[in-house]
What does this fold into?
Amino acid sequence: MTHPLLVLATHDDHLARRWHALGERWPIVRANRFDALPAGARLALIDAALPDLPALGDPRWPRLAAGLRMVFASSRPNDAEGLGAIEAGCSGYCHAFASLEQLTQVLDVVESGELWVGRAILNRLLRAVDHASKPPAAPGWAAGLTEREQEVAQRAALGESNADIATALDITERTVKSHLSAVFEKMGVADRLQLALRVHGIK
Amino acid sequence: MTHPLLVLATHDDHLARRWHALGERWPIVRANRFDALPAGARLALIDAALPDLPALGDPRWPRLAAGLRMVFASSRPNDAEGLGAIEAGCSGYCHAFASLEQLTQVLDVVESGELWVGRAILNRLLRAVDHASKPPAAPGWAAGLTEREQEVAQRAALGESNADIATALDITERTVKSHLSAVFEKMGVADRLQLALRVHGIK
DNA sequence: CGGCGCATCGTACTCAAGGACAGGGAGACG
DNA sequence: CGTCTCCCTGTCCTTGAGTACGATGCGCCG
It folds into this structure.
């Protein structure tokens, strides 16, 4: 048998019967409790509704993840739980009542060492990162600033000195100061530190 | 045949031969150019090195993605390209010379309507989101700082002047400078702006 | 054409910041 | 007791930042 033992960890007999069909692909064993997971198991499908399930921040999760590839199955999936599960060390997160084809695919992917999250979560991740990865796309703070002023403000807020900015924009330090003064005036801040806090959403 | 037609889009004959083995699973057809993709195709594996490949920001990508599930295969994968590919509408991003098992898995996942990215990118996404979702809780930056130094650093990072901090803590401005100098030294930053960026998780 | 916004540059000034250098007092620890 | 760390304070000095006067050139618009 090339496939590793698959532990089906659920307290729910109905769910267990449903998951039982996975036995066609993996040798399976049932576990009723979290702390009763077989020691040597390498792959597990874990019901989020297990009665003795530790919180996702619990240190037992990462310890367990060292030797066990876990798929966290929730009957009511949501982003926060999914992120928590992945961060806790789980390799997959899916709907507990997903189709057998879907579950098989998830387990396949996880067994091969990859991570699996649904497209909903992945999309949200991408949008979040997309959001976070482009500070130049100013949301509100740049209102009323000219294009040049925004450039200068952006750089100043990232810690560049006036001389740095001048060199980068190929203008004089004097001009940088001029733009910055306008920025301070328009944004109602006193110095570049306050500017940085505003630009980055602190205060 | 339950599997849809798989378009192998690459200009590279070597890569095409390698991918050809996917024909055991999907009916395949070769395309040499991006604008020569068959009209009715539903699934495509696209070489990032295609000569006429549009930039990832090109509007042709989302249009194409409407009817075609694309896996973007790069011979030198990196996060930025991966994110760009997914955002452009591709359903998968992987190494062009990944193993056939891996490619099959990716295509399986994508064919079923899910998104696929490697664990490296996914991990990075998670860390990025993890980072972005908790700006107030900065646990790591204060490592090695004494209690007093942390107080001063915290206030300085929020934009308080040395005089402000001195008044607030009922000490001399000189002492504030002393603590701050120690903070700068320990954290490897040059001034309070850099400190603020570090404390608040920017840079 | 004249006014206006924008970007650019000059000099001079004030001031907070930060470093260099030097020290005192309180508590912990072997 | 000696040593160590932490907290506190002092003076002197250099420098970047920010402001206060100023100025020119360009494009747009009524």
Notes: Chain B touches chain A at residues 83, 86-87, 101-102, 105, 108-109, 112-115, 117-119, 122-123, 125-126, 128-133, 135, 158-159, 192-194, 196-197, 200, 202-203 (CB under 8 Å). The radius of gyration of chain B is 26 Å. Strands of chain B lie at 6-9, 28-31, 43-47, 69-74, 92-95, 116-117.
